[in-house]
Design a protein that fits this description.
The structure holds 2 protein chains of 2 kinds. Chain A is mainly alpha-helical. Chain A is built from 12 helices and no strands. The radius of gyration of chain A is 19 Å and the shape is globular. Chain B has a single domain, classed as Jelly Rolls (Sandwich), CATH 2.60.120.10. Chain A: Keywords: Sigma factor, Transcription, Transcription regulation.
């Protein structure tokens, strides 16, 4: 419970028992466990630690890559490359700088960018379909409602939507502006607002 | 280095999300190389991605996904260059931030600068994808014509300094501008000002001088 000690100033955090953990605190506990696991992997090079990390992260990493618009077989390959980097670069992981989730996210993101630049044609062909804009918006709202819980769900819909389109659909700010029919400046100010709220809400955790 | 102009939160979020065009991502990486303040900030914007990853619904993997990866763990590692971890040995010009030095591979004075008008020379980095990235080398006393931007423009000062409507920009500073800003930078010392400029849409020059220069800059 080292992390709770670190938040010693917060009376509520210090008082919680495992039964009364909020979903967000549970999530944080899980995150800390994975950071510890990744640190152990770096020290021991134990393949069973790697297998545990794989079990949790590989399906999420693949889910992320699929959302960027890559076909399933490519997403599987890129996920394998990203997870191989987790094994090879574990010694560079520093849990005081980032959580395991964040570190693995950046590896998966970089692998995805490399792949998209290499397969440019394939990548740019994907987002061409143009469904009815109203229907599409409804679809995105429901995805946000379902999949982004707690902190992100506390954001106003407009802010959660731009965060989602940016981080999880790999859209540039200009593309988001075009898709939503709002000025580029509004996309950016929504992102800034979302970011400052998430920082405040997640506090130490982010 | 005394850096006083930094990126907008929204730009660092786009960098973390991986959605910047190649040239803008390069420019951000260059500033991060020099700026501990923005390195701290990007840890936070990255962590938004990490927190979202925890919230994603897991996707189904191929049946033998784990076994086939476990079988590869002992493969000899191929050399793969990672800009983040090769900072200690920049190739080329050591005055430049490592990611740019590696890309250029030669000192700035030996690069094939092309004259594009009054006291302005440039090198197009010829990166792929949307937007453009180039080095501009502007002589003392010269001002770049008034221009606005269709999209976003990032400028990183590599050498020298300039002044414009937004303030004074020196080595290491970034100007993070979007389409609403019209500005006219003026080189304000007796040293050339060299900047890395990356855009995600063509610049729009205003005024006669601008219209004359635009075809040469080739945007």
């Amino acid at each position: 419970m080292q992390e709770f000690d670190a938040e010693g100033g917060d009376v509520n955090a210090a008082a919680v028992t495992p039964q009364t953990l909020t979903p967000e605190q549970r999530r944080k506990q899980v995150r800390d466990e994975w950071s510890a696991c990744l640190t152990r992997l770096a020290e021991t090079r134990d393949k069973s630690e790697f297998a545990r990390l794989f079990g949790y992260f590989a399906p999420r990493v693949k889910s992320y890559i699929l959302r960027l618009g890559m076909p399933d077989a490519t997403a599987e390959e890129v996920m394998q490359e990203a997870m191989l980097l987790v094994w090879r670069k574990a010694h560079l992981f520093n849990r005081t700088k980032a959580s395991a989730s964040t570190w693995i996210f950046t590896l998966a993101r970089n692998q995805s960018i490399d792949r998209m630049r290499r397969d440019k044609v394939q990548f740019y062909e994907l987002p061409e379909e143009e469904p009815d804009p109203e229907q599409r918006d409804m679809g995105e709202h429901s995805i946000i409602a379902e999949r982004m819980q707690e902190a992100i769900a506390t954001l106003p819909e407009g802010q959660a939507q731009v965060l989602h389109l940016s981080y999880y659909e790999g859209k540039s700010h200009s593309e988001i502006a075009e898709q939503l029919g709002i000025p580029l400046g509004s996309v950016k100010s929504r992102l800034r607002l979302a970011f400052s709220k998430l920082k405040a809400h997640w506090g130490e955790e982010v | 280095m005394n850096i006083s102009h930094h990126f907008d939160d929204a730009t660092l979020m786009a960098y973390s999300a991986g959605t910047l065009p190649e040239g803008m991502a390069l420019l951000v990486a260059c500033h991060l190389h020099w700026c501990p303040h923005c390195r701290d900030r990007v840890e936070v914007t990255n962590s938004v991605g990490g927190a979202l990853l925890d919230r994603l619904e897991p996707a189904a993997l191929d049946d033998n996904a784990l076994d086939s990866l476990l079988a590869r763990l002992d493969e000899p590692e191929q050399e793969f260059a990672s800009p983040e971890h090769s900072r200690s040995e920049p190739a080329g010009d050591s005055e430049l931030p490592a990611p740019l030095a590696q890309l250029l591979g030669a000192p700035m004075d030996e690069l094939p600068w092309k004259r594009i008008g009054y006291g302005v020379r440039q090198i197009d980095l010829e990166l792929k994808g949307p937007g453009a990235a180039r080095l501009l080398r502007i002589s003392p006393g010269v001002s770049v014509p008034h221009h606005t931007h269709g999209g976003n423009e990032l400028t990183l000062i590599l050498k020298g300094s300039y002044n414009d409507e937004l303030g004074r920009f020196c080595r290491g500073d970034v100007a993070d501008l979007d389409g609403d800003v019209e500005h006219q930078p003026l080189v304000d010392t007796d040293e050339d000002c060299i900047c890395l400029i990356a855009t995600d849409a063509p610049l729009k020059f205003s005024g006669l001088m601008g219209r004359l220069v635009q075809p040469f800059i080739g945007l």
